[in-house]
């Protein structure tokens, strides 16, 4: 049983906080039909992106939604199933009104699948702190994070082990509460967008630096989880990585890149 559990993983399709040549933005593949965010679906999956049926959005920023536009456009005639887009009500509203709005890109929720009656896109509003069953043994539970727009992270559970994807955030207060009360969480993915000399920008844009990240982590009552770091801005990558090493203290963070895996242990 233990061996079976150890094989569970999340594929990181995009690990970075903005696009640059060779660097994809946030997206995690939970299973072949389900992702969290859509920053880098096309490059990572190419034709396999046809199989994606469920995208759980953390928030409405472009680096998390952009490839919804391109996977639908590229493989429009080959898609046979509706793409369900899940998000907080504010996130769904932003995508509908400002992105797939028939001005910036087609409103695919009013366009039928090629040769079928169902629509290409269906929007589903979700509630924080509610568990959603996504297969027989998988659940996903959104929780609110601290960003410049409405934003949520997700606790993704397979059987009895969970990975916490925290998404863009400044404060880790909610993350700390959930983590300290849920021992099933074995791994946590937290962002570190900026270098420490960009602390003011981090506060204004509600992101973390390594100094801010580890100062908060050091107040956590738990340290028995694997720590993964994502959403680094590629331009400052080397400096941020050096600073993570300088500030990590007792923590042994794994810095994610595209095509890495996150494990449930
Ligand atoms: Zn972002
Ligand atoms: Zn953001």
Automatic annotation (TrEMBL):
GO terms for molecular function: 3',5'-cyclic-AMP phosphodiesterase activity; 3',5'-cyclic-GMP phosphodiesterase activity. It comes from the Bacteria. InterPro entries: Pdiesterase2, RibonucZ/Hydroxyglut_hydro. GO terms for biological process: cAMP catabolic process; negative regulation of glucose mediated signaling pathway. Keywords: Hydrolase. PANTHER family: 3',5'-CYCLIC-NUCLEOTIDE PHOSPHODIESTERASE 1. Coiled coil: none annotated. This is MBL fold metallo-hydrolase. Gene3D superfamilies: Ribonuclease Z/Hydroxyacylglutathione hydrolase-like (3.60.15.10). The keyword Transmembrane helix does not apply.
């Amino acid at each position: 049983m233990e061996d079976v559990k150890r094989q569970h993983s999340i594929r990181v399709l995009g690990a970075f906080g903005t696009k640059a040549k060779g660097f994809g933005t946030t997206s995690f593949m939970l299973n072949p039909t389900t992702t969290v965010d859509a920053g880098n679906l096309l490059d990572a999956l190419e034709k396999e992106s046809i199989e994606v049926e469920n995208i759980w959005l953390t928030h409405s920023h472009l680096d998390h939604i952009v490839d919804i536009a391109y996977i639908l456009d590229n493989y429009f005639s080959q898609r046979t199933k509706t793409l369900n887009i899940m998000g907080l009500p504010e996130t769904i509203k932003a995508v509908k009104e400002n992105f797939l709005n028939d001005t910036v890109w087609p409103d695919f929720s009013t366009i039928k699948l090629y040769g079928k009656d169902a629509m290409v896109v269906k929007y589903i509003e979700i509630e924080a702190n509610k568990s959603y069953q996504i297969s027989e043994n998988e659940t996903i539970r959104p929780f609110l994070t601290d960003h410049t727009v409405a934003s949520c992270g997700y606790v993704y559970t397979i059987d009895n082990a969970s990975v916490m994807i925290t998404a863009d955030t400044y404060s880790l207060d909610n993350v700390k509460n959930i983590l300290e009360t849920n021992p099933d969480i074995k791994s946590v993915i937290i962002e570190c967008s900026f270098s420490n000399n960009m602390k003011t920008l981090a506060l204004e844009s509600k992101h973390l630096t390594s100094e801010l990240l580890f100062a908060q982590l050091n107040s956590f009552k738990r340290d028995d989880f694997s720590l993964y770091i994502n959403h680094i801005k590629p331009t400052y990558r080397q400096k941020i990585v050096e600073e993570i090493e300088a500030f990590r203290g007792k923590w042994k963070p794994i810095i994610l890149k595209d095509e890495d895996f996150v494990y449930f242990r």
